[in-house]
Design a protein that fits this description.
Layout: H1 2-18, H2 34-111, E1 118-121, H3 128-139, E2 144-147, H4 152-157, E3 164-166, E4 170-172, E5 177-180, H5 183-192, E6 197-200, E7 206-207, H6 224-227, E8 228-229, E9 232-233, E10 246-249, E11 256-259, E12 262-265, H7 268-282
Parallel strand pairs: 1-2, 3-6, 4-7, 6-11
Antiparallel strand pairs: 4-5, 5-10, 8-9, 11-12
Length: 300
């Protein structure tokens, strides 16, 4: 009875431990003594422990390799994030420069004592108007009111706008202006309400080698810029999106182009090149070195 209970007990323990590593054993027959059973159990236990140790080493090795791969993926992710952040900062810096170009002209007018109030469109999808234009103006103590892009027609219809000022990314030789998407719509609204439409453009943005706006490629930006606002999804998943970064305003809708070298008025195809001619003539001429007469050697 005691031998059977002892063998049965060991069998349960053996089954419980062995099952974890795929080892199963049981007593051979009732002729084995308690010592034989104990010796056999010890041997099996040693075997189980050895197999468990090897299995643990394999798990540890797999874990280490997995950790190394995970760290590699994380490092790759960090590199991608850093590159994305650098591109974003570059894009924002370009936006800030464009904003500064035409906001500074408004600030200069305020400093000269002119009473000016600015209505700034929010400028979807990146909201440069609400975040950058408004910030620049407020910093310069210029009264500014932010509106959504689709309110522009309403405020023009109500007589609250006396002129429109926009920036430009590229201006063609005929005066067509490529700028942030939505500029063309503002130009059409301004023309409908007989409101002057001005473009603030550094000379570096005017390309006299580009004959018209039809030659200016329009970049298509990622759909996520429209479907998400600050990483929060606002549009249904899978919906089709069009996201052109720029539009082209025909020159006939532009009242004048204001540059650091002067103002080009209609017809822009003739007046824009004059700005470059004036800029060339304004450069200081190089001082020519007078040739010194050669001294003649005296013959002895």
């Amino acid at each position: 009875m005691s031998a059977d209970r002892g063998g049965f007990g060991w069998f349960l323990i053996g089954l419980g431990v062995g099952a974890a590593v795929g080892v199963l054993y049981a007593p051979k027959s009732g002729q084995e003594t308690r010592e034989e059973l104990a010796s056999s159990a010890r041997e099996k236990s040693e075997y189980v422990r050895e197999q468990s140790r090897k299995a643990a080493e394999k798990v540890s090795d797999i874990t280490d390799r997995g950790r190394d791969q995970l760290n590699e993926y994380v490092d790759r992710g960090k590199d991608a994030v850093d590159r994305g952040r650098a591109q974003w900062n570059q894009y924002v810096d370009r936006g800030r420069q464009v904003v500064s170009d035409h906001v500074s002209k408004v600030s200069d007018a305020v400093e000269e004592g002119k009473r000016i109030q600015v209505i700034a469109c929010e400028t979807r999808p990146f909201l440069q108007g609400a975040r950058l234009t408004a910030w620049e103006l407020k910093k310069d103590h210029v009264p500014v009111t932010v509106i959504t892009d689709n309110m522009a027609g309403h405020v023009m219809q109500r007589g609250r706008v006396s002129c429109v000022i926009v920036g430009t990314d590229r201006t063609a030789a005929n005066g067509d202006v490529a700028n942030k998407i939505g500029t063309y719509g503002l130009a059409v609204l301004a023309h409908r309400h007989s409101i002057p439409f001005y473009v603030a453009a550094p000379l570096s943005s005017i390309d006299l080698q580009c004959p018209s706006g039809e030659r200016i490629p329009i970049e298509e930006r990622p759909a996520r810029e429209v479907t998400h606002v600050f990483d929060r999804q606002i549009a249904p998943t899978g919906v089709r999106v069009a996201n052109p970064a720029f539009d082209v305003t025909p020159s006939e809708l532009v009242t004048a182009i204001v540059t650091e070298r002067g103002i080009a008025r209609q017809p822009l195809a003739r007046t824009l090149p004059r700005l470059f001619a004036d800029a060339e003539s304004a450069r200081p001429a190089r001082a020519e070195r007078k040739a010194e007469p050669r001294k003649q050697r005296r013959r002895s």
